[in-house]
């Protein structure tokens, strides 16, 4: 198993990503692999695929989308946690992370949940889980989104990987995504949409 905070040359943290949208999986891979000592060991198309690849690839952490066909992220997490109860799992959603969703995610075995609309939140969530902490965080409008900037910079630990992708990732402040990233087909809402609201304490 990868070492948390490993030095260069040490075994990388191996992360499995699961999302039914290929464009989102590519974005997640780029975001994750821009972080020092992280690597994507595999990706899954749906919840059932995630269960199989978790068993096959034995990742150090699993990142699961909420809305997937065949089996959603909550259902997949329950199955994964039965076999590997100590495996950290992060839930991605186009919704805001409400108290109800936090409760459902924690019950399913997730240790964190973030809005997929904000790249820095995804990175921060993974960082916190690797430190053996939970991270159920609503999206903040003052964080960097997928390549967009704001008036206030994100924490230093996530600023580098996110800002480096700015030239190739779409701004989430636009209603459409002309750079080749179609909206998510899920009825829950379009992928990469910005979720605004006051930070919860």
Short description:
The chain has 201 residues and is of the alpha/beta class. Helix content is 32%, strand content 15%. Mean pLDDT is 74; it is low at 1-9 and 141-201.
Reported for the largest beta sheet, the result is:
6 strands, parallel
Question: CATH topology, which one?
Answer: Rossmann fold
| Strand/helix succession | EHEHEHEHEHEH
How many domains comprise the coordinates? 1
As laid out across the biggest beta sheet, the strand order is: 2-1-3-4-5-6
Please name the defining characteristics of this protein.
201 residues; alpha/beta; disordered C terminus; Rossmann fold; disordered N terminus; globular
Write the layout of secondary structure elements.
Blueprint: E1 13-18, H1 22-33, E2 38-44, H2 47-57, E3 61-65, H3 73-83, E4 89-93, H4 99-108, E5 112-115, H5 119-130, E6 135-137, H6 156-164
Parallel strand pairs: 1-2, 1-3, 3-4, 4-5, 5-6
Q: What report would you give on this structure?
A:
The protein has 201 residues and is α/β, with parallel strands linked by helices. It has one domain (13-164): 3-Layer(aba) Sandwich (Rossmann fold), CATH 3.40.50. 32% of the residues lie in helices and 15% in strands. A 6-stranded parallel β-sheet has the order 2-1-3-4-5-6, with helices on both faces. Mean pLDDT is 74; it is low at 1-9 and 141-201.
């Amino acid at each position: 198993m990868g070492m948390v905070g490993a030095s260069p040359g040490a075994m990388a943290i191996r992360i499995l990503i699961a999302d039914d949208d290929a464009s989102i999986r590519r974005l997640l891979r780029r975001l994750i692999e821009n972080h020092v000592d992280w690597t994507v060991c595999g990706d899954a198309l749906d919840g059932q695929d995630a269960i199989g690849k978790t068993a096959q690839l034995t990742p150090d952490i699993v990142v699961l989308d909420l809305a997937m066909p065949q089996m959603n992220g909550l259902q997949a997490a329950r199955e994964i946690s039965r076999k590997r109860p100590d495996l950290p799992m992060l839930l991605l959603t186009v919704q805001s992370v409400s108290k109800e969703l936090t409760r459902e995610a924690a019950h399913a075995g997730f240790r964190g949940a973030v809005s997929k609309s904000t790249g820095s939140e995804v990175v921060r969530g993974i960082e916190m889980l690797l430190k053996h902490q939970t991270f159920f965080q609503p999206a903040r409008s003052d964080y960097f989104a997928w390549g967009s900037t704001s008036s206030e910079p994100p924490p230093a630990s996530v600023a580098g990987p996110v800002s480096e992708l700015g030239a190739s990732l779409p701004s989430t402040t636009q209603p459409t995504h002309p750079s080749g990233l179609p909206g998510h087909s899920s009825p829950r809402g379009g992928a990469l949409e910005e979720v605004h609201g006051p930070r919860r304490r």
